[in-house]
Amino acid sequence: MGERFRITGKDWQTVFILSLFRATTSFSLVIAYQNIASGVASTIHFMYPLAVALTMMLFFKEKKSFSILFAVFISLIGAALLSSGEIDFKGGDTATGLIAAAISIFSYGGYIIGVRKSRAASIPSTALTCYVMGFGTLFYIIGGCLTDGIRPATDGHAWLNILGLAIPATAVSNISLVKAIKHVGPTLTSIFGALEPLTAIVIGCCVFKESFTWSSAIGIALIVTAVTVVILHENGTGKVRK
Fold this sequence. Notes:
This protein is an all-alpha fold. The chain has helices at about 10-35, 40-45, 50-60, 65-80, 95-115, 125-145, 155-185, 185-190, 195-205, 215-235. The chain contains ten helices and no strands. This is Membrane protein. Keywords: Cell membrane, Membrane, Transmembrane, Transmembrane helix.
């Protein structure tokens, strides 16, 4: 069955704001990766589960839970171990990179909470993702025109890379993210987001033959433990919706 793409005027306002959060996240991460080591940038960005959990507890009266806080804490440690690296980046500005990575924490956390706690919760996931990505594209076109301009890719291999990033890594993942937020909530979704560096480690080792260290092993173990703790907690309280 197809999804409804028609939304109201008030919905457009909500979508526009969420698009700003999402575009800010992507843009700030690009700046961070250009100025500091990717491992450090990733570690800072993956503090967003803590920001989400604390915001939900402080401002949306979500019940405080030691299990959730413990899971957030150890998932952050796991993400830090998986994304560990030197902070310096050749030719980059460390202060700019750190500030950009910090901004990504709050912009992505705001996006996750906004999807669940705003009118966006009633918008079909595919439609919401389409409009958010559409606005994001418009923001980047405007930004490109105001800076170095826009240069279309002409190489076939480059287009394959672009399609790989656009379809599975962006469209599919964002639709899945929106559905997850609506079904299990912002906090649980954000903790599962810590599996992203774990996925990067697995792909790096299996596909690109990168090294697998004790830090990687401990990080994976901590993240798996965090996810297990949250699943047991949510199942025990009956809060996970089908």
